[in-house]
Protein backbone atom coordinates (compact mmCIF):
# COMPACT_ATOMS: atom_id res chain seq x y z
CA UNK A 1 0.00 0.00 0.00
CA UNK A 2 1.54 3.33 -1.06
CA UNK A 3 2.10 6.16 1.42
CA UNK A 4 -0.59 8.87 1.52
CA UNK A 5 0.26 11.99 -0.49
CA UNK A 6 -0.24 15.27 1.39
CA UNK A 7 -0.26 18.65 -0.33
CA UNK A 8 0.91 21.62 1.80
CA UNK A 9 -0.22 25.01 0.47
CA UNK A 10 1.41 28.12 1.98
CA UNK A 11 2.94 31.30 0.55
CA UNK A 12 5.64 31.36 3.24
CA UNK A 13 8.67 29.19 2.30
CA UNK A 14 9.58 28.48 5.94
CA UNK A 15 6.08 27.21 6.72
CA UNK A 16 6.10 25.00 3.62
CA UNK A 17 9.49 23.58 4.58
CA UNK A 18 8.35 22.76 8.13
CA UNK A 19 5.17 21.09 6.88
CA UNK A 20 7.16 19.11 4.30
CA UNK A 21 9.54 17.92 7.02
CA UNK A 22 6.83 16.92 9.49
CA UNK A 23 4.76 15.14 6.82
CA UNK A 24 7.82 13.21 5.68
CA UNK A 25 8.61 12.15 9.25
CA UNK A 26 5.09 10.62 9.44
CA UNK A 27 5.93 8.35 6.51
CA UNK A 28 3.72 10.29 4.10
CA UNK A 29 4.64 11.67 0.68
CA UNK A 30 4.82 15.51 0.91
CA UNK A 31 4.01 17.85 -2.00
CA UNK A 32 4.08 21.66 -1.68
CA UNK A 33 2.46 24.61 -3.43
CA UNK A 34 3.05 28.33 -2.86
CA UNK A 35 -0.45 29.43 -3.88
CA UNK A 36 -4.01 28.25 -4.35
CA UNK A 37 -3.65 28.39 -8.12
CA UNK A 38 -0.57 26.16 -8.03
CA UNK A 39 -2.42 23.74 -5.73
CA UNK A 40 -5.23 23.39 -8.29
CA UNK A 41 -2.67 22.62 -11.00
CA UNK A 42 -1.15 19.87 -8.85
CA UNK A 43 -4.61 18.43 -8.11
CA UNK A 44 -5.28 18.19 -11.83
CA UNK A 45 -2.08 16.19 -12.37
CA UNK A 46 -1.82 13.69 -9.49
CA UNK A 47 -3.66 11.88 -6.74
CA UNK A 48 -3.75 13.78 -3.43
CA UNK A 49 -5.03 12.24 -0.20
CA UNK A 50 -5.00 15.31 2.07
CA UNK A 51 -4.50 19.07 1.75
CA UNK A 52 -3.10 21.39 4.42
CA UNK A 53 -3.61 25.03 3.48
CA UNK A 54 -2.99 28.38 5.07
CA UNK A 55 -6.03 30.65 5.13
CA UNK A 56 -4.23 33.97 4.57
CA UNK A 57 -2.48 33.91 1.18
CA UNK A 58 -2.22 36.54 -1.55
CA UNK A 59 -4.25 35.94 -4.69
CA UNK A 60 -6.43 32.91 -3.96
CA UNK A 61 -6.78 32.48 -0.19
CA UNK A 62 -7.64 29.27 1.64
CA UNK A 63 -11.40 29.84 1.61
CA UNK A 64 -11.36 30.48 -2.14
CA UNK A 65 -9.30 27.32 -2.68
CA UNK A 66 -11.90 25.30 -0.73
CA UNK A 67 -14.70 26.81 -2.81
CA UNK A 68 -12.91 26.01 -6.09
CA UNK A 69 -12.31 22.42 -4.98
CA UNK A 70 -15.99 21.99 -4.16
CA UNK A 71 -16.97 23.39 -7.56
CA UNK A 72 -14.72 20.80 -9.19
CA UNK A 73 -16.08 18.01 -6.92
CA UNK A 74 -12.79 17.06 -5.24
CA UNK A 75 -13.53 14.75 -2.30
CA UNK A 76 -10.31 15.39 -0.39
CA UNK A 77 -10.19 16.32 3.32
CA UNK A 78 -8.73 19.79 3.89
CA UNK A 79 -6.95 21.02 7.02
CA UNK A 80 -6.72 24.80 7.37
CA UNK A 81 -3.96 26.60 9.26
CA UNK A 82 -4.82 29.88 10.94
CA UNK A 83 -2.91 32.46 12.92
CA UNK A 84 -3.55 32.92 16.64
CA UNK A 85 -6.81 34.74 17.30
CA UNK A 86 -8.48 33.78 14.01
CA UNK A 87 -10.55 30.85 15.23
CA UNK A 88 -13.70 32.38 13.73
CA UNK A 89 -12.23 32.21 10.24
CA UNK A 90 -11.18 28.59 10.80
CA UNK A 91 -14.68 27.64 11.94
CA UNK A 92 -16.07 29.47 8.91
CA UNK A 93 -13.76 27.40 6.70
CA UNK A 94 -15.04 24.18 8.28
CA UNK A 95 -18.61 25.25 7.69
CA UNK A 96 -17.66 25.66 4.04
CA UNK A 97 -16.13 22.22 3.69
CA UNK A 98 -12.79 22.02 5.54
CA UNK A 99 -12.34 18.94 7.71
CA UNK A 100 -10.41 20.50 10.62
CA UNK A 101 -8.08 23.35 11.52
CA UNK A 102 -4.76 23.98 13.28
CA UNK A 103 -3.96 27.17 15.12
CA UNK A 104 -0.44 28.61 14.88
CA UNK A 105 1.84 27.93 16.56
CA UNK A 106 1.11 24.19 16.63
CA UNK A 107 3.26 21.36 17.90
CA UNK A 108 4.46 18.48 15.69
CA UNK A 109 2.34 16.13 17.84
CA UNK A 110 -0.83 18.20 17.26
CA UNK A 111 -0.06 18.17 13.53
CA UNK A 112 0.48 14.41 13.53
CA UNK A 113 -2.77 13.68 15.40
CA UNK A 114 -4.80 16.00 13.18
CA UNK A 115 -3.32 14.57 9.98
CA UNK A 116 -3.91 10.98 11.13
CA UNK A 117 -7.49 11.80 12.05
CA UNK A 118 -8.12 13.34 8.61
CA UNK A 119 -6.53 10.37 6.81
CA UNK A 120 -8.65 7.96 8.86
CA UNK A 121 -11.70 9.99 7.85
CA UNK A 122 -10.72 9.76 4.16
CA UNK A 123 -10.28 6.01 4.48
CA UNK A 124 -13.71 5.76 6.13
CA UNK A 125 -15.30 7.78 3.33
CA UNK A 126 -13.72 5.53 0.69
CA UNK A 127 -14.92 2.39 2.49
CA UNK A 128 -18.41 3.82 2.79
CA UNK A 129 -18.50 4.61 -0.92
CA UNK A 130 -17.58 1.00 -1.69
CA UNK A 131 -20.30 -0.49 0.49
CA UNK A 132 -22.88 2.19 -0.28
CA UNK A 133 -23.80 0.49 -3.53
CA UNK A 134 -24.48 -2.78 -1.70
CA UNK A 135 -26.44 -1.13 1.08
CA UNK A 136 -28.30 1.02 -1.42
CA UNK A 137 -30.06 -2.09 -2.70
CA UNK A 138 -31.13 -3.09 0.80
CA UNK A 139 -31.96 0.29 2.30
CA UNK A 140 -34.00 2.09 -0.32
CA UNK A 141 -37.58 3.24 -0.49
CA UNK A 142 -38.14 0.48 -3.06
CA UNK A 143 -37.11 -2.11 -0.45
CA UNK A 144 -39.93 -0.99 1.86
CA UNK A 145 -42.82 -3.10 0.57
CA UNK A 146 -46.31 -1.67 0.90
CA UNK A 147 -49.62 -1.31 -0.87
CA UNK A 148 -51.17 0.69 1.97
CA UNK A 149 -52.28 4.19 0.93
CA UNK A 150 -51.17 5.94 4.16
CA UNK A 151 -47.78 4.22 4.04
CA UNK A 152 -47.31 5.21 0.41
CA UNK A 153 -48.07 8.86 1.18
CA UNK A 154 -45.55 8.81 4.03
CA UNK A 155 -42.85 7.32 1.75
CA UNK A 156 -43.52 9.99 -0.87
CA UNK A 157 -42.87 12.67 1.76
CA UNK A 158 -39.73 10.86 2.94
CA UNK A 159 -38.36 10.74 -0.61
CA UNK A 160 -38.83 14.49 -0.95
CA UNK A 161 -37.05 15.38 2.29
CA UNK A 162 -34.17 13.01 1.41
CA UNK A 163 -32.82 15.67 -0.96
CA UNK A 164 -32.85 18.37 1.77
CA UNK A 165 -29.78 17.28 3.67
CA UNK A 166 -29.77 20.06 6.27
CA UNK A 167 -33.43 19.57 7.24
CA UNK A 168 -34.02 17.76 10.51
CA UNK A 169 -36.39 14.81 10.12
CA UNK A 170 -38.48 13.42 12.98
CA UNK A 171 -39.78 9.86 12.60
CA UNK A 172 -42.65 8.80 14.87
CA UNK A 173 -43.91 5.27 15.27
CA UNK A 174 -44.36 2.35 17.64
CA UNK A 175 -41.51 -0.01 18.47
CA UNK A 176 -40.78 -2.45 15.68
CA UNK A 177 -42.52 -0.51 12.91
CA UNK A 178 -39.28 0.23 11.00
CA UNK A 179 -38.14 3.71 12.05
CA UNK A 180 -34.44 2.93 11.53
CA UNK A 181 -35.15 1.26 8.18
CA UNK A 182 -36.89 4.45 7.04
CA UNK A 183 -34.03 6.61 8.36
CA UNK A 184 -31.49 4.55 6.42
CA UNK A 185 -33.61 4.83 3.26
CA UNK A 186 -33.63 8.62 3.63
CA UNK A 187 -29.85 8.60 4.09
CA UNK A 188 -29.10 6.44 1.07
CA UNK A 189 -31.57 8.35 -1.11
CA UNK A 190 -29.77 11.62 -0.32
CA UNK A 191 -27.33 12.92 -2.90
CA UNK A 192 -23.84 14.02 -2.03
CA UNK A 193 -23.58 12.19 1.30
CA UNK A 194 -20.10 10.65 1.13
CA UNK A 195 -19.91 9.43 4.72
CA UNK A 196 -21.86 6.84 6.61
CA UNK A 197 -24.97 6.33 8.69
CA UNK A 198 -24.58 6.27 12.47
CA UNK A 199 -27.42 5.30 14.81
CA UNK A 200 -27.42 6.18 18.53
CA UNK A 201 -30.04 4.73 20.87
CA UNK A 202 -30.52 7.45 23.48
CA UNK A 203 -32.42 5.08 25.78
CA UNK A 204 -29.77 2.34 25.76
CA UNK A 205 -26.80 4.47 26.88
CA UNK A 206 -26.49 5.57 30.54
CA UNK A 207 -27.10 9.29 31.05
CA UNK A 208 -23.55 10.00 32.27
CA UNK A 209 -22.07 8.41 29.13
CA UNK A 210 -24.46 9.71 26.48
CA UNK A 211 -22.88 13.19 26.21
CA UNK A 212 -19.44 11.69 25.59
CA UNK A 213 -20.95 9.22 23.12
CA UNK A 214 -22.47 12.07 21.11
CA UNK A 215 -19.86 14.81 21.38
CA UNK A 216 -16.65 13.07 22.46
CA UNK A 217 -14.23 14.27 25.14
CA UNK A 218 -10.70 15.55 25.51
CA UNK A 219 -8.06 13.77 27.53
CA UNK A 220 -8.46 14.39 31.26
CA UNK A 221 -12.00 15.74 30.93
CA UNK A 222 -13.16 13.42 33.72
CA UNK A 223 -11.93 10.47 35.74
CA UNK A 224 -11.06 7.65 33.37
CA UNK A 225 -10.70 9.88 30.29
CA UNK A 226 -7.11 8.79 29.65
CA UNK A 227 -7.26 9.67 25.96
CA UNK A 228 -9.19 11.89 23.61
CA UNK A 229 -12.29 10.42 22.01
CA UNK A 230 -14.28 11.34 18.93
CA UNK A 231 -18.04 11.49 19.41
CA UNK A 232 -20.72 10.29 17.05
CA UNK A 233 -21.32 13.80 15.69
CA UNK A 234 -17.68 13.92 14.58
CA UNK A 235 -17.81 10.43 13.06
CA UNK A 236 -21.04 11.28 11.21
CA UNK A 237 -19.50 14.30 9.49
CA UNK A 238 -20.66 14.35 5.90
CA UNK A 239 -23.22 11.62 6.59
CA UNK A 240 -26.30 11.02 8.74
CA UNK A 241 -26.79 10.58 12.47
CA UNK A 242 -29.97 8.95 13.80
CA UNK A 243 -30.87 9.85 17.39
CA UNK A 244 -33.24 7.01 18.20
CA UNK A 245 -35.55 7.19 21.23
CA UNK A 246 -34.98 10.96 21.44
CA UNK A 247 -37.80 11.17 24.00
CA UNK A 248 -35.52 9.45 26.54
CA UNK A 249 -32.71 12.00 26.23
CA UNK A 250 -32.05 13.72 29.59
CA UNK A 251 -33.03 17.40 29.84
CA UNK A 252 -29.49 18.83 30.29
CA UNK A 253 -28.35 17.10 27.12
CA UNK A 254 -31.43 18.32 25.25
CA UNK A 255 -30.14 21.90 25.65
CA UNK A 256 -26.82 20.96 24.07
CA UNK A 257 -28.54 19.18 21.20
CA UNK A 258 -30.64 22.31 20.61
CA UNK A 259 -27.42 24.28 20.09
CA UNK A 260 -26.19 21.73 17.56
CA UNK A 261 -29.44 22.01 15.63
CA UNK A 262 -29.49 25.81 15.71
CA UNK A 263 -25.81 26.67 15.22
CA UNK A 264 -24.42 23.46 13.72
CA UNK A 265 -21.51 23.45 16.17
CA UNK A 266 -20.67 21.51 19.35
CA UNK A 267 -17.82 21.12 21.82
CA UNK A 268 -16.21 18.03 23.28
CA UNK A 269 -16.52 17.47 27.02
CA UNK A 270 -13.65 19.39 28.58
CA UNK A 271 -12.88 21.23 25.35
CA UNK A 272 -13.38 24.85 24.36
CA UNK A 273 -12.87 24.70 20.60
CA UNK A 274 -16.15 24.83 18.64
CA UNK A 275 -16.47 21.95 16.17
CA UNK A 276 -18.82 22.42 13.20
CA UNK A 277 -20.97 19.55 11.98
CA UNK A 278 -22.55 19.16 8.56
CA UNK A 279 -24.28 15.82 9.11
CA UNK A 280 -27.95 15.22 8.46
CA UNK A 281 -29.82 14.79 11.75
CA UNK A 282 -32.75 12.37 11.99
CA UNK A 283 -34.54 11.75 15.28
CA UNK A 284 -36.95 8.94 16.05
CA UNK A 285 -39.21 8.04 18.94
CA UNK A 286 -42.12 5.83 19.95
CA UNK A 287 -43.14 8.39 22.58
CA UNK A 288 -45.65 11.24 22.32
CA UNK A 289 -43.31 14.22 22.55
CA UNK A 290 -46.16 16.73 22.95
CA UNK A 291 -47.24 14.89 26.11
CA UNK A 292 -43.64 14.85 27.37
CA UNK A 293 -43.43 18.61 26.77
CA UNK A 294 -46.64 19.14 28.77
CA UNK A 295 -45.20 16.99 31.58
CA UNK A 296 -41.98 19.03 31.63
CA UNK A 297 -39.84 16.08 30.52
CA UNK A 298 -38.97 17.40 27.07
CA UNK A 299 -37.92 20.91 26.06
CA UNK A 300 -40.59 22.75 24.11
CA UNK A 301 -38.01 24.68 22.02
CA UNK A 302 -36.25 21.43 21.11
CA UNK A 303 -39.59 19.82 20.22
CA UNK A 304 -40.38 22.58 17.73
CA UNK A 305 -36.81 22.48 16.39
CA UNK A 306 -36.83 18.75 15.62
CA UNK A 307 -40.42 18.73 14.39
CA UNK A 308 -39.51 20.51 11.14
CA UNK A 309 -40.43 17.56 8.94
CA UNK A 310 -42.36 14.89 10.87
CA UNK A 311 -43.01 11.46 9.40
CA UNK A 312 -45.39 9.00 11.09
CA UNK A 313 -45.21 5.28 10.34
CA UNK A 314 -48.61 3.58 10.77
CA UNK A 315 -48.62 0.54 13.09
CA UNK A 316 -49.02 -2.82 11.39
CA UNK A 317 -52.54 -3.31 12.80
CA UNK A 318 -53.62 -0.21 10.84
CA UNK A 319 -52.28 -1.49 7.54
CA UNK A 320 -53.29 -5.13 7.46
CA UNK A 321 -53.56 -4.93 3.70
CA UNK A 322 -49.73 -4.99 3.75
CA UNK A 323 -49.47 -8.18 5.80
CA UNK A 324 -49.67 -10.81 2.99
CA UNK A 325 -47.12 -8.84 0.96
CA UNK A 326 -44.83 -8.45 3.97
CA UNK A 327 -45.12 -12.16 4.77
CA UNK A 328 -43.97 -13.15 1.28
CA UNK A 329 -41.16 -10.58 1.39
CA UNK A 330 -39.95 -11.91 4.76
CA UNK A 331 -40.23 -15.54 3.61
CA UNK A 332 -38.12 -14.69 0.56
CA UNK A 333 -35.40 -13.39 2.86
CA UNK A 334 -35.69 -16.42 5.14
CA UNK A 335 -35.35 -18.82 2.20
CA UNK A 336 -31.95 -17.31 1.50
CA UNK A 337 -30.96 -16.91 5.15
CA UNK A 338 -31.95 -20.44 6.24
CA UNK A 339 -31.30 -22.20 2.95
CA UNK A 340 -34.67 -23.97 3.23
CA UNK A 341 -37.54 -24.61 0.90
CA UNK A 342 -40.47 -22.71 2.36
CA UNK A 343 -43.60 -23.40 0.29
CA UNK A 344 -45.56 -20.63 1.98
CA UNK A 345 -48.31 -20.02 4.53
CA UNK A 346 -51.51 -22.02 4.83
CA UNK A 347 -54.88 -20.29 4.60
CA UNK A 348 -55.61 -20.98 8.27
CA UNK A 349 -52.23 -19.60 9.34
CA UNK A 350 -52.75 -16.45 7.26
CA UNK A 351 -56.14 -15.98 8.91
CA UNK A 352 -54.44 -16.21 12.32
CA UNK A 353 -51.81 -13.68 11.21
CA UNK A 354 -54.46 -11.25 9.96
CA UNK A 355 -56.52 -11.58 13.16
CA UNK A 356 -53.55 -10.93 15.46
CA UNK A 357 -53.03 -7.31 16.63
CA UNK A 358 -49.16 -7.29 16.32
CA UNK A 359 -48.08 -5.10 19.25
CA UNK A 360 -44.47 -5.56 18.11
CA UNK A 361 -45.33 -4.56 14.53
CA UNK A 362 -43.16 -5.68 11.60
CA UNK A 363 -40.32 -6.80 13.88
CA UNK A 364 -42.67 -9.18 15.70
CA UNK A 365 -44.05 -10.45 12.39
CA UNK A 366 -40.56 -11.21 11.15
CA UNK A 367 -39.59 -12.99 14.39
CA UNK A 368 -42.79 -15.02 14.27
CA UNK A 369 -42.21 -16.13 10.68
CA UNK A 370 -38.54 -16.89 11.29
CA UNK A 371 -39.45 -19.19 14.17
CA UNK A 372 -42.18 -20.84 12.09
CA UNK A 373 -39.77 -21.31 9.18
CA UNK A 374 -37.31 -23.10 11.46
CA UNK A 375 -40.04 -25.46 12.72
CA UNK A 376 -41.40 -26.40 9.30
CA UNK A 377 -39.95 -29.06 7.04
CA UNK A 378 -40.94 -28.50 3.39
CA UNK A 379 -44.54 -27.88 4.37
CA UNK A 380 -46.88 -24.92 4.53
CA UNK A 381 -46.67 -22.87 7.70
CA UNK A 382 -49.66 -23.78 9.86
CA UNK A 383 -51.23 -21.98 12.87
CA UNK A 384 -49.45 -24.34 15.27
CA UNK A 385 -46.07 -23.19 13.89
CA UNK A 386 -46.83 -19.53 14.63
CA UNK A 387 -47.51 -19.79 18.35
CA UNK A 388 -49.43 -16.51 18.32
CA UNK A 389 -50.58 -15.49 21.78
CA UNK A 390 -48.77 -18.40 23.42
CA UNK A 391 -45.64 -18.44 25.53
CA UNK A 392 -42.54 -19.90 23.80
CA UNK A 393 -42.78 -23.06 25.93
CA UNK A 394 -46.43 -23.58 25.11
CA UNK A 395 -45.83 -22.92 21.43
CA UNK A 396 -43.04 -25.47 21.25
CA UNK A 397 -45.22 -27.91 23.11
CA UNK A 398 -47.89 -27.54 20.46
CA UNK A 399 -45.60 -27.79 17.45
CA UNK A 400 -42.99 -30.39 18.27
CA UNK A 401 -44.10 -33.05 15.80
CA UNK A 402 -47.70 -32.31 16.86
CA UNK A 403 -47.39 -34.70 19.83
CA UNK A 404 -47.71 -34.24 23.59
CA UNK A 405 -46.46 -36.80 26.08
CA UNK A 406 -48.63 -37.59 29.12
CA UNK A 407 -47.58 -39.78 32.04
CA UNK A 408 -50.72 -40.88 33.89
CA UNK A 409 -50.66 -43.10 36.99
CA UNK A 410 -53.77 -44.63 38.64
CA UNK A 411 -54.33 -47.13 41.41
CA UNK A 412 -55.96 -50.16 39.78
CA UNK A 413 -59.15 -49.72 41.79
CA UNK A 414 -59.56 -46.08 40.53
CA UNK A 415 -58.94 -46.74 36.87
CA UNK A 416 -61.91 -45.62 34.80
CA UNK A 417 -62.58 -43.65 31.62
CA UNK A 418 -63.87 -40.67 33.62
CA UNK A 419 -60.75 -40.63 35.81
CA UNK A 420 -58.56 -40.79 32.70
CA UNK A 421 -60.42 -37.85 31.12
CA UNK A 422 -60.25 -35.81 34.33
CA UNK A 423 -56.50 -36.29 34.63
CA UNK A 424 -55.90 -35.40 30.95
CA UNK A 425 -57.97 -32.24 31.43
CA UNK A 426 -56.12 -31.35 34.63
CA UNK A 427 -52.65 -31.99 33.18
CA UNK A 428 -53.38 -30.03 30.00
CA UNK A 429 -54.77 -27.14 32.04
CA UNK A 430 -51.59 -27.06 34.14
CA UNK A 431 -49.43 -26.99 31.00
CA UNK A 432 -51.48 -24.05 29.72
CA UNK A 433 -51.01 -22.15 33.01
CA UNK A 434 -54.70 -22.37 33.85
CA UNK A 435 -55.86 -20.89 30.53
CA UNK A 436 -59.01 -22.90 29.80
CA UNK A 437 -59.45 -21.47 26.29
CA UNK A 438 -55.93 -22.47 25.32
CA UNK A 439 -56.26 -25.92 26.87
CA UNK A 440 -59.60 -26.48 25.09
CA UNK A 441 -58.05 -25.44 21.79
CA UNK A 442 -55.14 -27.80 22.34
CA UNK A 443 -57.46 -30.73 23.07
CA UNK A 444 -59.91 -29.68 20.31
CA UNK A 445 -62.84 -29.68 22.74
CA UNK A 446 -65.26 -27.10 24.08
CA UNK A 447 -64.23 -24.86 26.99
CA UNK A 448 -67.20 -26.15 29.02
CA UNK A 449 -65.49 -29.53 29.37
CA UNK A 450 -63.31 -28.02 32.13
CA UNK A 451 -66.36 -27.44 34.29
CA UNK A 452 -67.09 -31.17 34.80
CA UNK A 453 -68.96 -31.95 38.00
Secondary-structure topology with pairs:
Elements: E1 5-9, H1 13-25, E2 29-33, H2 36-45, E3 50-54, H3 62-71, E4 78-82, H4 87-95, E5 100-103, H5 108-138, H6 149-161, E6 169-172, H7 179-189, E7 197-201, H8 207-215, E8 216-217, E9 229-230, H9 232-235, E10 240-244, H10 251-263, E11 265-266, E12 275-276, E13 280-285, H11 289-294, H12 300-306, E14 309-312, H13 323-338, H14 347-355, H15 361-375, H16 383-386, H17 392-399, H18 417-431, H19 436-443
Parallel strand pairs: 1-2, 1-3, 3-4, 4-5, 6-13, 6-14, 7-10, 10-13
Antiparallel strand pairs: 8-9, 11-12
Helix pairs in contact: 2-3, 10-12, 13-15, 18-19
Taken as a percent bin, the fraction of beta residues is 5-15%
Largest sheet: 5 strands, parallel
Rounded radius of gyration (Å): 30 Å
Gap between N and C termini, in Å? Answer: 85 Å
**Strand tally, please?**
14
Unreliable spans: 133-137, 391-403
Structural class: alpha/beta
The backbone outline, from C-alpha atoms, is elongated
User: What spatial order of strands do you see in the largest sheet?
Assistant: 2-1-3-4-5
pLDDT averaged residue by residue:
85
Query: What is the count of DSSP helices, taking H or I runs of 4+ residues?
Result: 19
Residues in helix, %: 40-55%
Amino acid sequence: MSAPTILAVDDEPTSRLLLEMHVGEMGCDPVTASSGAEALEILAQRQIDLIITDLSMPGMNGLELIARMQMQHYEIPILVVTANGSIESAVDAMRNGAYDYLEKPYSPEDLRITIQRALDYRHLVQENKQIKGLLNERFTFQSIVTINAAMKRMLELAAKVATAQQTTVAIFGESGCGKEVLARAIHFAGKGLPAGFIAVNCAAIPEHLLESELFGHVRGAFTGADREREGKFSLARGGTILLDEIGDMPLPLQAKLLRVLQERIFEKIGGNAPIPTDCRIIVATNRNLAELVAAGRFREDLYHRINVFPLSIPPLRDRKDDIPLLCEHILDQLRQHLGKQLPGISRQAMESILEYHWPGNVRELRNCLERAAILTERELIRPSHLGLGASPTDALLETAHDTISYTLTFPSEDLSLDALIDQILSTTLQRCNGNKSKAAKLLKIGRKAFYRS
